Amino acid sequence: MKSIVTKTGDGGITGLVGGRRISKAAARLHAYGTVDECNAVIGMVLAEEIPDHMRKKLTRIQHLLFRTGSDLATPVESAAPVPRMKPAHVRELEEWITAIEKELPAQKSFLLPGGPKPAALLQLARTVCRRAERWVVLLAAEEQLNLSVQIFLNRLSDALFLFARALMIESGTEEIEVSYD
Questions:
Q1: How far apart are CA 151 and CA 155, in angstroms?
Q2: Going by C-beta distance under 8 Å and a sequence separation of 6 or more, which residues neighbour residue 13?
Q3: What is the pLDDT of residues 45-72, one digit of tens each?
Q4: pTM for the full model?
Q5: Where along the chain do its domains lie?
Q6: Looking at domain 13-171, what is its CATH homologous superfamily?
Q7: Which residues, including other chains, have CB under 8 Å from residue 64's CB and lie 6 or more apart?
Q8: Which among 176, 179, 181 is positioned nearest to 112, based on CA atoms?
Q9: Phi, psi of 177 (to 5 degrees)
């Protein structure tokens, strides 16, 4: 079995799909590293007791986040055959968002993150997703990217917020509106 230890990154440089080598401090690495972090937080949510319908969606999201990371790790101009994010993946999230919004009470103000542990972890995943999106926006200003990646991350943060709200409500936990007093 081949070892996970290659030592090729010891000098702070790593390889992209297609062979190009770049700094581990590059925006591209921050982007897909933060996508990976978001995926790990979702894994923490999945370690908790949550409804099966949400478990299925979050597991699907984990697979899509690996696709997102693969897309980000592969420059658009690369001929490497990698799975890319597509508008259909964005539409899938939008359908979930539309369905869950119909089930939730109207939101009248900003809400404090918290509630039962899975809901709080979903809020954490949301903030990590937003950070990934910011890195993608920065990277997109430097070089061409697949626009579906940026749009997907934007929709995903919305979906994670709504999943957190749904868990709060399903658990009977009161949503606390932000007070600016």
A1: 6
A2: 21, 22, 23, 24
A3: 999 999 999 999 999 999 999 999 999 9
A4: 0.91
A5: 13-171
A6: Cobalamin adenosyltransferase-like (1.20.1200.10)
A7: 85, 89, 152
A8: 176
A9: -75, 145
